[in-house]
Specification:
8 strands; single chain; eight-stranded mixed beta sheet; 358 residues; alpha/beta
Length: 358
């Protein structure tokens, strides 16, 4: 299999300029089209997005915490003496706190060849639904706005509409086609840290697994559980990644056993196979759900209550986030904070003294 290579950013920029100057469609040597795709990775905070991406790109690097939104790229030759296809890779850090930044990689130019990978930390099931819901809503809202801009663009300005939008490519025999709500662009949901999740109680594992199967099928997405400690699982995850980033054929493995790592390509599942929400001491009729998705949410959150909003607000302050700790800088910040507090106390005493004198 041809190996992915990562040339310098300058070489990538030079190749892109050359491509555009020559019409943007063909490579100067072989005359073949150079394909460019964009992949947006987002998901749980400290959920392993960077580690998974590095493994999929065959890069032997130490992963570091993602600051806000980071860009990298991959190049892959389709064969001997052929042009290298390009994958523009954007990674959103900070969990849900920086979800507004999805507007940067989602543009009228990129939307026609865009895919989204949502990484959910299986070891933190209480935060899973909230993370999934907020990030997908943010991405979907901006995708729809961008698509609308493209549709309304002036005559003569050539932007492509989402040619591979999930809603447009589903075959007529796609399972439950009339009951699902396909995500606007191809979507892959990755459940990370399976090595920790596999130690959970079997009933709780079933709740998480069935719920993610429902969500993936509802959005016409693929679903894969993985762990960077398992070469076998990373290999299967890489197959999905290469399909989105470079258009390679994805693996045909399907595993839907809730007590094993789930590997379910889009279109391989159905509501009939998934079944009803796991009713762990829950009377479904008492939940008053508005629709099937709302019902699954209510059942899931009965088993895994979401984190409190106060905790979520506190996490939005990067200065208090241990993920971004810098011992020397933090020590200086603490010293300055103490000096500021002392200054405030001294100022208050002086003010009181002045009031007594008057």
């Amino acid at each position: 299999m041809p190996k992915i290579s990562s040339d310098t950013l300058w070489e990538l920029a030079a190749a892109e300029v050359h491509s555009r100057e020559s019409g943007g469609a063909e490579d100067g040597d072989g005359g073949e089209a150079v394909n460019e795709r964009t992949v947006l990775l987002m998901g749980s905070k400290a959920g392993g997005k960077t580690s998974i991406l590095l493994r999929c790109l065959d890069r032997d690097e130490l992963s570091k915490p993602t600051l806000a939104l980071e860009y990298t790229f991959g190049r892959r030759a389709r064969g001997h003496n052929t042009p290298k296809d390009i994958a523009h890779l954007w990674e959103l850090g900070g969990g849900t706190s920086l979800s507004d930044l999805v507007q940067i990689p989602i543009t009228p130019v990129s939307i026609s060849c865009l895919s989204v990978i949502l990484v959910l930390d299986l070891s933190k099931p209480n935060a899973l639904w909230g993370t999934m819901e907020k990030l997908l809503q943010a991405a979907q809202a901006h995708l729809e706005r961008t698509s609308s801009q493209v549709q309304k663009s002036k005559p003569g300005v050539k932007h492509q509409t989402p040619s591979h939008s999930a809603a447009r490519v589903l075959p007529k025999d796609y399972p439950d086609r009339e009951l699902i709500s396909p995500f606007p662009v191809p979507l892959l949901i990755i459940g990370s840290k399976y090595d920790i999740f596999q130690e959970f109680d079997s009933d709780k594992k079933k709740v998480v697994s069935k719920t993610l199967r429902f969500i993936a099928h509802y959005y016409a997405a693929s679903l894969a559980f993985t762990s960077i400690k398992s070469e076998s699982l990373i290999s299967k995850t890489k197959s999905f990644f290469l399909h989105l980033a470079f258009g390679l054929e994805r693996g045909k493995t399907v595993s839907s056993d809730p007590l094993k790592p789930l590997i379910i390509p889009a279109g391989s599942d159905s509501f009939g196979q998934i079944g009803s929400p796991p009713t762990v001491d829950v009377d479904i009729t008492s939940l008053h759900a508005k629709n099937p998705k709302d019902l699954w949410k209510k059942v899931y959150e009965r088993v895994f209550p979401p984190e409190s909003t106060s905790e979520q607000r506190e996490l939005k302050d990067p200065a208090k986030d241990p993920q971004y700790s810098e011992p020397q800088i933090d020590a200086m910040r603490a010293q300055k904070d103490q000096e500021l507090e002392q200054y405030k106390r001294n100022a208050a005493k002086s003010w009181k003294g002045l009031e007594l004198e008057t």
